[in-house]
Design brief:
This protein is mostly helical. It contains 5 helices and no strands. Helices cover 61% and strands 0% of the residues.
Length: 114
């Protein structure tokens, strides 16, 4: 799974921009870091292909796919991409909280849910 010490973070890309500390970096900014995007694309490629194969292989081999199936196959890749991105960003945020000494108790909600 995604490690909070992502390649982009090791290169010092965790800055929130001029005058903004790293911990105020937005969720979107973290999700768009090159390491997060690359990892999420790999997960989406692998898991999405597996899901498409399970769901549509019989129709593809029989030649009975309809235009709506092609759209659904493309959308199938978005779910694993979103899940992988969410997990990576939450790991990055948890790492940042731990660095600041703000450990959450194990039963609490993730910081993004407040």
């Amino acid at each position: 799974m995604a490690r909070a010490t992502d390649a982009g973070l090791r290169r010092g890309q965790e800055s929130g921009g001029p005058g903004r500390p790293a911990e105020s970096t937005s969720w979107i900014h973290a999700a768009l870091q090159p390491g997060v995007v690359r990892r999420s694309l790999r997960v989406a490629g692998l898991v999405g292909t597996l899901l498409v194969s399970i769901k549509y292989a019989d129709r593809a081999l029989a030649g009975t796919l309809v235009p709506g199936d092609w759209l659904k196959m493309a959308l199938t890749y978005l779910v694993p991409y979103g899940v992988a991105t969410y997990a990576a960003v939450q790991a990055i945020r948890a790492e940042r909280q731990m660095r600041r000494g703000e450990e959450a108790d194990p039963g609490s909600r993730p910081a993004g849910w407040r």
